[in-house]
Here is the input.
Amino acid sequence: MKKLLFILTAVFFTGIATAQCTIDPVPSSPGLYPSNFPSTCVGTNYSETMTIIFPSDTVLFGFTISFDSVQYVVSTVPAGLTSNCHNIDCKVIGNPPNLIKGCIGINGIPTAPTAPTDSITVTVTAWVTVPFVGVQVITQDQKIALDVFASPDNTVTVTSSTLTSNAVGATYQWLDCDNGNTPIVGETNATFTPASSGNYAVAVSANGCSATSSCTAFTATAGLSATSVSPFSIYPNPTTDQITIAFTQQSEEVSVTVYSASGQVVSNNSYTNVSKIETPINGEAGIYIIELTMNGETLRSKITKR
Here is the structure.
C-alpha cells in the first residue's frame, strides 16, 4: 500500500484560523519545506511558515485511488504560539494528477520551554472514493518536535575577589558597564577577576538563546593592582605540575583555594605558620586562579598550566 507522506510540524489549529500562511510554489515532491521548524527561545517573537505537499493518491483494496480531499489539524503547540493555515478550515480539495499542497504558519511569543519529550501532533485526514465500496476515510497522526529553550541564567554571584556567572554550560563574555558595555578582551570564562573597581555585566549564550546580566558593582581587593607590593610570589608560572607560593614573611594562618577558569574549586587547603607552600595543580592545561586568604584579606593571582 502506497504510504501517505505526512512529514509535518508545529502549530495549533482551532476552528477558524485568524491568519493565513503562504504556500511555497517551488517544491515539487511530497514532504515538508523546510523539513523542520527552527528552535526558538522563551520570550522571543516567532514567525515561521512550512509548506506541506501531500501525495495525490493511495492504494486501497487493490485500487490506486486519487484523494478527493485532505485536511490537516495541528495541536499540542508550545505555550504562547498559535497556528494558521492556507484557508479557513485547513482543507485541500484534490485535483489529480496535481500535487496537494497546504501550509502551516506558527506565530507568537513562546512563554515556557518545552520538555525533551514534548511534541506537536499533526492529524491528517484524507477522503477517497473506492470503486464498488464508496467513500473511505484515512487518518494518520504525526509527532514533530518544536524546541523552545529557556533563556540562560543571567544572575551573577559576587565574592570579595571575583564575579561568577551562574549560567551552566554556556558561553560567556564579560562587559564593562562603565564603558558602554564594551566587551572585555579575553574575559570569556564563567569567573572574572576585575583588575580595578567598577561595574560589570556578563552576556551568556546557550542553545541559541542569550541573556545579559544587570550591571554589578565590584570593589577590587587591595593588593591586586599591578602597582601594589604583593605579600607573596608564585612560581613557576607557567607550570606543568605544581606551584610554589613564597611569602615575604611567615604567615600564621593562610587558606589556599585553586579555581579552574570556569570557576570550579580544584583544591582547598589551610596552613599554619608557613613561609612557603608547594601545591599541585590538578587538572588539564589552562588558566587557574589561586586565591589566598590571610591576615583578613583575600588575594588572587592567575597562573597558567601547560
About this structure: The chain has three domains: 31-149, 156-218, 232-305.
